Amino acid sequence: MTPLESSGVLTSEPPAPTTPRAARTRPRHRALIEWSAIIVVAVLVSFLMRAYAFQTFYIPSKSMLPTLRVGDRIVVNKLAVSLGTIHIGDIVVFKAPPKENCDPSMPVTDLVKRVIGTPGDVLTSIGNTIYVNGQALDETWTHTEPLGQPIGNVTVPANQYFMMGDNHDNSCDSRTWGTVPRSDIIGKAFVRIWPLSRIGFL
Q: What is the pTM (predicted TM-score) of this model?
């Protein structure tokens, strides 16, 4: 028996130092601030991407059959318009022209069509053939015939584009409400993301 034990004094480990409550809550506050910052940045990036880079759109009509079906969802590349060029054959989304009133029961704010005429082009049609600057337009994309409403004889103004749906005979397009200014074009459709069975580039 040791002297301390014989004297009746019990020994134990010294008590662990206690952590102040403020010190314990500090890491929690830091984590909360970090996560809040991450969420704010994510929302901001998402907003900027939608406003300036990419946006999704829903297809409500049959005017672009067979390329796009009712219910399809597409992604539009806005930078391809703001920083790039627009060509014949591009599928674009644009603000509905003021004269667009093809179906008063279903008002729309945005439309999706294919570009078949660029600034300065002269367009006409004979039968089911579209002519651009005197040359038959080689429609390498899927589309339906007959042409339906003829084009007449149109010279596309500067900074304007002539739009037509791939479902030629069932499309309300530039043949009805005229050309579309570049400033009204939102972006180029480049990929279909829905339905899953039809995911692919356009």
A: 0.79
